[in-house]
Amino acid sequence: MEYTLLIHGDERVWNGLSEAEQAELDAAHVRFGRALHEAGVTVRYGAGLRRSCSARLVVPGGGSEAPVSDGPYREGHEHLGGLWVIDVADEAEAVSWARWMPAAPGDLVEVRPVRVT
User: Fold this and answer.
1) Where in the sequence is the signal peptide annotated (predicted)?
2) pLDDT range class, residue 58, cuts 50, 70, 90
């Protein structure tokens, strides 16, 4: 079954890390992806996301007149920093991998089943 591992955190923490600390977290994600692969986990997709100031919120269904505002969320400081989509046996295995995911201080990883349509 496919699960998405969504990295939630306070972007101010990421912005407060040195370039070396940010690079180490990026490298840790490369190692995490390698560990998934070596364990036989199918990785459908993995990506870090650009800064939240680049996000736009679009109201669907409004055609060319649909309102667009700055994102990533309507309010608050939490942001979605990246994601992995993995194919594992069950939720317990997905949670187990989420526990090993590299993260900035205070980040959380949301584990959610993927609904394929």
Assistant:
1) none
2) confident
